[in-house]
Amino acid sequence: MATVDPALKFQVLTGLLESESTTLIGIDAGEVLTLAEGRGLGPMGVAGTATVGASLAAAFGEHPELVELFRRGLRGERVRVEKIYGQAYWLQSFYPLRGADGAIVGAAMLAIDVTRDLTTVRQAHMLRELVNNLPTNVFAVDPRGVCEISEGGLLAEIGLKPGQNVGVNVFEAYNATIPDLADAMGAAFRGETRVIEFSFGDSLYSQTTLPRRDAQGNYAGAYCIASDITQRRRDEELLRAQMRIIQEQKEAIVRLSSPIIEVGHDALAVPLVGSLDEQRAATIMHGLLEAIAHKRARFAILDLTGVDTVDPTSAEHLIRIIHSVRLLGAQAIITGIRPPIARIMAELGLDLSRLHTLRSLQDALRYCGESSPGVR
């Protein structure tokens, strides 16, 4: 069997002790330091006292707890403790040193600065605690579909505890429950992100499946983040229902505010009140054209007596209605243009020469009667 070269062992040990994060101290059975190496002596605050030949009590006079730990090593115990020096967090291992006959000849302490590792662990712990208090579920799976992380505040909703799914193959466990799971996972394994929805019990979930990479950047599984969207979907449906009601109410108001009145066997009248926006104009046009076709009307009277104001957009809608009436073979008549409205229309430069305008609705009715076949 091959053996390790003692020189190589020494080289490895020397390199370890030259690290800023490592310290090795040894004592003999008489509690005298026989070894004190490592750049960690300074951060631990014992560089000036922990020297070879110093007594254990003198070396660690300001750290009596370490003296007791060394003595426990001399009694044959192995002890591991965690200690903070300044801003650093150290992991200290104490163990006995034995001679060839097995008798204890001393004790040693190996101290390693694990601040960076501890920070990572603490961050992971805080992240886990945060996730487990959020209304979401987080999973991580390897390329085989085996779950490696299972956390989240919503796990209880599906009867699970944090970590309970670790080691479970999600394809085997959930393919029947989540029909699109395999496709979403397969896409993530290829580097794509997918969002799927599925029902679990009485709840509706949305799950985002993202690609997972290893340290070399290769695809190494998938992350899944699921949230309960049951209430959100209900709220959306409620909002859509409310919007439909509002729209129906607006249309009803438009119809009521602009009724199409049959004022003769071949004449219709539409009294306009208020402003004329695009939606209202479309509703009036649709209803008026339907009525003209159904009643076979020859005249359509648009009475502007109740119109508050006219802007370029309102005038454009009005001209469009009149043009559509003409396309059906009926004659459009404008009545009730008050002086302020006439002035605004003139200032806007609207060409009203082709419009048939009369002073009042009564004048329009008289005109329609006189223009009807058989009237003298």
From TrEMBL:
Residues 189-241 form the PAC domain. Residues 257-368 form the STAS domain. Keywords: Phosphoprotein. CDD domains: STAS_RsbR_RsbS_like. InterPro entries: Bact_StressResp_Reg (IPR051932), PAS-assoc_C (IPR000700), PAS-like_dom_sf (IPR035965), PAS_4 (IPR013656), STAS_dom (IPR002645), STAS_dom_sf (IPR036513). It comes from the Bacteria. This is PAS domain-containing protein. It comes from Nannocystis pusilla.
